Amino acid sequence: MTHILSSWKGKVIVATGGVAVASGLVIGGMVATSGNAAPPKTATPVSADNASAAAMPAFRLPFPCGQKWRGDTTASSAHTKYEIDFNQGRDLSNVDEGRTVVAAAAGTVIRSTRHVNQSGYGNHVVVQHSGGYQSWYAHMKYRSVKVGQKVKPGTKIGAVGRTTRPSNSGMTAHLHYEVRKNGQYPPVAAYFSGKRFPYPQPRPGVTLTACKGGGGTPPPASPVARICGKGYKQINSHALGRAGRIYLGYNKANKNNCVITVKGKGKKVKMSAFLQVKGAKAKADTGNFTQYAGPVRSAANNKCVKWGGYIGGTKWYSGWSHCG
To answer: How many Å apart are CA 259 and CA 286, to the nearest integer?
Structure first.
């Protein structure tokens, strides 16, 4: 599984579109946003630069549930310590070519293209997630999503392949996976369902099972319809560490957004759910609750919204988003 970067490791660092790229990797015009615009005065947002792993989206293994995949970090001399190559079948073969690749978390596709000479990543997809995080999927046989498309965890985005630059035509099929913060290279450590990938991993790598065990468990059913009401569907969510999760819902019938902040059952805790539609006053439901704050609803047809909340001392607020 020789990686293309090994042939041009050590070139001068290139800065393109405001993004620093190491080892000669040219990614061309990347636009990345942290989504952390100023929240209401009573809130303390999580800084994009200082966000911990607890502020990460709930990433899962990027393959269909139940499948076992091996991840290694040292198959290429050009890898940083946080780049992962995944294989399911025999190593140094092409038996994995064409196998499904799925989104590791909810987000928006900000890149779906093929690089032949720019980076050697071939067919690759980049998904922008909350908190400024991005997931990168490279060398795919084909891509199933387009720029601007919203994806959920488990949405098919392409298939395992071996596309790269012509000079590295001997590459064998695998999925190259990275997590980046604010579009910056090198990547950061990857987590799957809250568990940090066990770096370093030489060949043949560590075996993880998608959606259970080391690969993580399926996310719980969304509480949006139950709490916000009939017709509401979840369109985004953000984890508050282990404390709970904030959910953003939308009702196509009445064009309303809805925000709820949910924790597990237990003692009452200070909680808040916050929603602001651009051009309107902010709304919040704040108090001591046993399970959830909200629902906070507001009409938001074709208008951007800010949403967020807190549980105890763990807080998060978005910038303007979901403007459709």
So the answer is: 12
Per residue in 100-138, pLDDT (tens digit) is 999 999 999 999 999 887 788 999 999 999 999 999 999
Tell me the three state secondary structure of residue 127.
strand
Mean pLDDT of 216-235: 80
Residue 309 CA to chain centroid, in angstroms? Answer: 20
Contacts of 70 (CB under 8 A, 6+ apart): 86, 87, 88, 91, 204, 205, 206, 207, 208
| The one-letter amino acid at 100 | T
Residues in the chain: 324
Tell me the Ramachandran region of residue 99: left when phi exceeds 0, alpha when psi lies from -120 to 50, beta otherwise. beta
Q: How confident is the model at residue 43 (pLDDT cuts 50, 70, 90)?
A: very low
Q: Is-cis flag, bond preceding 295, omega within 30? A: yes
Specify which of 79-88, 128-137, 198-207 reaches the highest per-range mean pLDDT.
Answer: 128-137
Instruction: Give the torsion through C-alpha atoms of 195, 247, 178, 139, to 10 deg.
Output: 120
List C-alpha distances in Å: 152 to 68, 126, 145, 229, 288. 21, 14, 12, 21, 31
- Using CA atoms, how far residue 157 sits from 113, 160, 247, 279, in Å, is 12, 10, 24, 35
CA distance 271 to 291: 9
Contacts of residue 31, Cβ cutoff 8 Å, sequence gap at least 6: 17, 110, 183
Q: What is the DSSP string of 155-184?
A: -EEEE-B----GGGTTPPPBEEEEEEETT-
**C-alpha–C-alpha distance, residues 144 and 173, integer Å:** 18
Beta strands across the sheet bearing 269-277: 283-289, 269-277, 305-311, 314-317
Number of H helices, E strands in the chain: 1, 23
- Tokens (6 digits) for 106: 């909810």
The CA distance from 293 to 52, in Å, is: 24
Q: Are 282 and 21 in contact (CB under 8 A)?
A: no
Cβ atoms within 10 A of the Cβ of 218, count?
13
